[in-house]
From TrEMBL, chains A, B:
Its cofactor is Mg(2+). Belongs to the FPP/GGPP synthase family. It holds the Pfam family polyprenyl_synt. The keyword Magnesium applies. Keywords: Magnesium, Metal-binding, Transferase. It comes from the Eukaryota. This is Uncharacterized protein. InterPro entries: Isoprenoid_synthase_dom_sf, Polyprenyl_synt. GO terms for molecular function: metal ion binding; prenyltransferase activity. One of its GO terms (biological process) is isoprenoid biosynthetic process.
Amino acid sequence: MAGALSSIIHANPRARAFSTSNPNHPLLSRRPTVLAMSTTDQSYWSSIHADIETHLKQAIPIRPPLVVFEPMHHLTFIAPQTSAPALCIAACELVGGHRDQAMAAASALRLMHASASTHENLPLTDRPNTRQTVYHTFGPNIELLIADGMISFGFELLAQTNDPDQNNSVRVLQAIIEISRAMGSQGVMEGQYNESQYGESDGEKLFPAAWLHNVCKKKEGALHSCAGACGAILGGGSEEEIEKLRRYGLYVGMIQGIFNRFERNEWSWKEVNELRELALKELKDFNQAKVKTISRLVETKLCNV
Amino acid sequence: MAGALSSIIHANPRARAFSTSNPNHPLLSRRPTVLAMSTTDQSYWSSIHADIETHLKQAIPIRPPLVVFEPMHHLTFIAPQTSAPALCIAACELVGGHRDQAMAAASALRLMHASASTHENLPLTDRPNTRQTVYHTFGPNIELLIADGMISFGFELLAQTNDPDQNNSVRVLQAIIEISRAMGSQGVMEGQYNESQYGESDGEKLFPAAWLHNVCKKKEGALHSCAGACGAILGGGSEEEIEKLRRYGLYVGMIQGIFNRFERNEWSWKEVNELRELALKELKDFNQAKVKTISRLVETKLCNV
């Protein structure tokens, strides 16, 4: 992950399409840019990112039935990235856990995010103009079905990490509940629905601030909040640590949500800075050597150039 | 469930649409009809069915956010029924478990089946003629997103049944793995894909026997196989009992799959009878008083009138 926040800014295909299709739009003057992280921090995030990639490639080999695994492999790795899986691992390590303990949860989060992105890009008959720039390699029908399977597959990966030697079954079940809530009724699903109400047909209209706040909270916010909590749960964190990392994730996600929609937002640096301060407050009781790295998710200096 | 097999025959909207739109089709002479069950058997299945309905109505109240829970409630209860959830409960009771132990898994199976049916009926741009008779109360966009949420919600319901007093976390995780496999890469998803290759555009052509066999195995077969295994796992059954009820469910599901597509099949009574015999063989070592009722899923007398 070469610069966690650069991945934030480029995670949203709508933002990408907008910025390339209309390079002279006046709102582009508000585009945030990212200063590079230190080499140590960068190599920490890169190593997490590479480990998740390796784990997922092993979990989704291209094997029979090819009608299932070929598109699943493709859709998982072509989807826009999110920093939620990496946050899940970093949260696990912050509370003293080992990376392996959170690897399946991180992979599940990436699968579910890829599934949600795939479904969001499907050309349904009542949203025929949705993301016309998205090419459907396998056709919408198979992409619909495979993305359903990716949700189940994420839960399967996580449930399989039950290990009698680690006596971790209760923690794994807690993580399953966290992810199911974040992806379902109390998070991403509601955010996706609300966001879909402002389709591309609205052109370049700015999003209202209250609406933006809610969408960022329910989409990127819920996903990262869940990632922080899951990492802490699986790493054996205390109740207090779990709640702190849940809130840290929420603020990280909300900031990312704002930048994902930066070209059509009524956002202000004041709001971003407030969220950043709230986020950092949640980290102050942890091991400060480790905090330095995880806090880069919100501390990377942003310049309004 | 007034006559388990009558619900089988009427579970498939395609079959329904066919039978009403073309009452004089010669294949209708092969329509199987169902003789009534005994009152005792009928009341057993009806009570299971009512208990699942009550459990789901409590689990999905119409509450905020209404944009989520209103369509989720609607889509869950309007979807075609399947006997898999009832089989899950019956399998649990057959191995000596209590109905409550399998209630969340049965509800999850019903939610996932409803989700799969909803997605199967979505009018995508590359299958615009799909089930034109299906009315989309909330519009395809919201139905797509809510059905995603229903998958996660099913896993949430199941994971929440972790109970330290029952020390059941490992069994719950096993059931989650069973359901995720059946609904995903090793079952329903592949069946749906294969079935979608024979769309309505093929008119009234008969399905090839090998294709039919595979679709029935992967769709209804995988769902009922998983239901039998989950019921036995959650009821505390032995490994042997779990495997017997997994196979029993597979045969039940395959027979149901054949009848769900009875108007366009090259099926034969010989094949159905063979599957029925295989199914009954799996039950011979269980408590015979209880076997009498569960075996009604395949024993109800069918007349080729």
